[in-house]
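[Meeting: bench + compute handoff]

Bench side (C.D.) handed over the final construct sequence. Compute side (W.E.) agreed to return the predicted structure before the next meeting so the bench team could plan truncations. Sequence as handed over:
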Amino acid sequence: MNQAGKSDRAKRALLIVDVQNDFCQGGALGVKDGDNVVPVINSIIDKFDIVISSQDWHPEESIHFRKWPPHCIAGTHGADFHPGLKSDKISLKLRKGTDNVDDGYSAFEATNVSLAGFLQENEISTLYICGLTTDYCVKTTALDAVNLGFHTYVITDAIKPVNVRPGDDKRALDEMYLNGCILVESDHLPA
């Protein structure tokens, strides 16, 4: 303990990106093996001081749907968290992509709360990121976290890619690593 009575261990948060029905098997924009991130996330969720999750929360009409099929429309089953995810452990739910001209890839673009502000207010300096998808929302969120000065880890066995182009996942991991993200597997997380 330090003089202020606080633990010397830096507070850390788990950020679960978009583990929603529409990004999993059978969803409107289902990611191959997207469901496989759920048991990995559930196995580590209790290791964190704070658990945060982002959700795509699109309006019915959006320019985002020029690039992608309609998905995660606000209030629909597709926008709900995967039913197997321990969502009761989530203390903050971020909603992004809520405007009809907003892609909302990064969790830092949430419209219902400032993620950066929340992390700073709660003295969280280290962020562990997992979820869907490696090459879009996970990557954009991780790069934003690094750029904002957070120690950023990406849990590689708890992410899955869209892979619009073959190899997008590898390129995304390389980009995150080269920009300062630490790539780690779930069984190598610090206690």
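W.E. noted at the follow-up: The helical segments are 37-44, 115-121, 134-147, 168-178. C.D. will use this when planning the next construct.
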